[in-house]
Design a protein that fits this description.
Elements (H helix, E strand, L loop, with lengths): L4 E4 L5 E7 L2 H16 L8 E8 L3 H19 L1 E12 L2 E10 L11 E12 L2 E9 L1
Antiparallel strand pairs: 1-2, 2-7, 3-5, 4-5, 6-7
């Protein structure tokens, strides 16, 4: 399987770059990198949720998309396992996500926030790349 994301050196926080052949795939890879930061092992697929977020551009859309997973974790005790379906239209994203109750797992990191620091979403040649710094 091709590499979906890599973690980069950062002094205090967690920084990653995510990759995809299209915009949906790079957003999915970013969500999986966030999940990997929170919990490194597989998450059981017991619960399904539909999420919808908007942004003014791809960076704000990615920020709001990842922030939604922190909200689901804090407010609904939901931890992402995988994204079943994802659709981006202009700067609006709809996704069906699968996961489990967060209380069934011991976290690797406590992600406090998504940040705009060093964030970008861009097309490089034939693929998309996103970079995100997580406040841990």
């Amino acid at each position: 399987m091709k590499q979906r994301f890599i973690f980069l050196e950062h002094t205090a926080d967690v920084k990653f770059q995510a990759f995809g052949k299209n915009i949906e795939e790079v957003f999915e890879s970013s969500a999986l990198a966030l999940k990997e930061t929170i919990y490194k092992k597989p998450i059981q697929e017991k619960e399904e949720k539909e999420i919808e977020v908007k942004g003014q551009d791809f960076e704000s859309l990615l920020y709001n998309f990842l922030e939604e997973f922190l909200y689901l974790l804090d407010a609904e005790n939901f931890l992402l396992s995988k994204i079943k379906k994802i659709k981006i239209d202009k700067f609006k994203i709809k996704a069906i996500v699968i996961g489990d109750k967060a209380t069934n797992y011991e976290f690797a990191n406590d992600v406090k926030a998504i940040t705009y620091s060093e964030m970008f979403v861009k097309k490089i040649k034939d693929k998309y790349v996103a970079q995100v710094v997580l406040d841990v």
